[in-house]
Amino acid sequence: MTRTFMLLIPLVAACTGDIDGYQPPAHAETDPWDELAQTEREGPPRYTSRVHSCAKVRYRTLGNLLTSRGVNLALTGQLAAGQIYRTSEGALGGPNFAGRVRETTDLGLATTSKMFDVFAQAAPEIIANMPNRPECQVAGVGAQLFDASNKCVADGITCLIGVPATAQHIAICNQTVTRAADVESGKRLAVAVLAAAAHTCE
């Protein structure tokens, strides 16, 4: 018996499931009608794997987003959103060109937390400056995030999150403002919650 033949015996046994009493796991029975209904509702797996996946916002894209909503990334104060953004490239999954490390595409917990920190610090700038940004103006009129009664405004939320605001968005925003210790803290937290949720697929 040749050496090659001796090496093939365990492989053949493994394929048949007869080695050391091992049996491959049985596949779960699924109802084909349920699978058909799911495919009609969500689309084929090849499509849903792309549409329903959630990649991390790129570091430079996050910077562009913040700038477009009125945040000054050049500010150097210790608690300035721009300062936090510039010094948190690693935590935000940015690339390390010197170390030949590409930008991460997975959205980890550390990155999510740091993004929320940035949005929370950027909130006062966003509230004050977003209506003056051309990205948030229609016929020269800027979208306000809050009205004179400190109620959340749909147009402002729409510009902040990049999709049409729903009744649920407005309700969450108003609830966050009213439950805070004070109105200004509530408005800041509401902006951070909405922005972070929109850009972390929550």
Number of strands: 2
Strand order within the widest beta sheet: 1-2
Order of helices and strands: HHHHHHEEHHH
Query: What does the overall shape look like?
Result: globular
The number of helical elements comes to: 9
By helix and strand content, what is the structural category?
mainly alpha
Low-confidence stretches: 4-19
Instruction: Please compute the radius of gyration using only Cα atoms.
Output: 25 Å
Task: Give the distance, in angstroms, between the N- and C-terminal Cα atoms.
Answer: 62 Å
Mean pLDDT: 82
Amount of beta strand: under 5%
Helix content range: 40-55%
Largest sheet: 2 strands, antiparallel
Question: Can you describe what's shown?
Answer:
- The protein is mainly alpha-helical and 202 residues long.
- The protein has a domain at 59-199.
- It is 53% helix and 2% strand.
- The chain is built from 9 helices and 2 strands, in the order ααααααββααα.
- The longest helix has 21 residues, at 109-129.
Question: What is the gist of this entry?
Answer:
The chain is mainly α. The protein has a domain at 59-199.
